[in-house]
Specification:
The chain has 91 residues and is an all-alpha fold. It has 4 helices and no strands.
């Protein structure tokens, strides 16, 4: 990892700071890491809420295909393509 010893001061409003902090949290990054990612035009990945995978697994376990499909669709929206590859709902 490159040495990060240069400080950049940035003036923003309270609302702008709140928005940037919220977006960083959604990506499970610190504000500094998030701003570096955006500033360097790297891809940003938003992490799904941890409860969403739990909902999916419980829907499969309790044979609730409608809820499982909704949760799976939401997880895939976040990039969770490996979720739901099993065929537990077919049993």
């Amino acid at each position: 990892m490159p040495k990060r010893d240069i400080l950049i001061n940035l003036r923003v409003s309270k609302e702008e700071k709140r928005i940037m902090e919220r977006k960083a949290k959604l990506c499970q990054q610190s504000l500094s890491a998030y701003l570096r990612t955006v500033g360097l035009e790297k891809d940003i990945t938003v992490a799904p809420p941890p409860e969403l995978e739990t909902i999916y697994k419980q829907a499969v376990m309790f044979k609730q295909p409608r809820f499982a499909n909704l949760a799976l669709k939401a997880l895939q929206h976040y990039g969770g393509d490996d979720v739901g590859n099993n065929k537990d709902m077919d049993n």
